[in-house]
């Protein structure tokens, strides 16, 4: 099981009707809310379906560590 967090950008296997295959994760849990980076359309899909649809992780969201200031 892969670990995903809010702010990660992923590439899905199938393209969105706008032509983009890149999405940003905006909610995690039993369901994932993802936002298309091409047209900003949002979609809520079950975790199992999302994990099967992910082709690659484009970038990980890096939170600033407050201890390193």
TrEMBL record:
It comes from Heliobacterium mobile. PANTHER family: DUF951 DOMAIN-CONTAINING PROTEIN, HYPOTHETICAL CYTOSOLIC PROTEIN. It comes from the Bacteria. InterPro entries: DUF951. This is DUF951 family protein.
């Amino acid at each position: 099981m892969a670990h995903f967090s809010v702010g990660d950008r992923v590439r899905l296997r199938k393209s969105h009707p706008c032509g983009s295959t890149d999405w940003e994760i905006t909610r995690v849990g039993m369901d994932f809310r993802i936002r298309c980076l091409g047209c900003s359309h949002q979609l809520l899909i079950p975790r199992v379906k999302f994990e099967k649809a992910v082709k690659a992780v484009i970038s990980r969201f890096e939170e600033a560590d407050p201890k390193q200031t």
